[in-house]
Sequence to fold (108 residues):
Amino acid sequence: MCHQRTDRSFFIGSRQFPLCARCTGILFGYILGIIIAILTDCKSYKLFPLLLIPMIFDGTLQHFTRYESNNIKRLITGLCGGIGIIYIFICIHMFTVWWVGILLNIIL
Fold:
């Protein structure tokens, strides 16, 4: 895989990140996605899954061809993917809570 490969990881000084550049972007994307979901109240739920497309395209192209992405592209596509992933999970959670609330009102 790509974790701990020096050509796919970032460094601070001489210390290597424990994750590859794409996974680092995904983790930062999760944090940004939570902030965006709070600010938008999950109103743009149709738009944010589209943020997964660059990450899927870049990773798939790199895996199945001779194309080699660079760390900046991996970071950016991972950041977009992380925002899309967490936004989807938050919207699913909010929908589930809303649906359970409706069911409880019917039952009780």
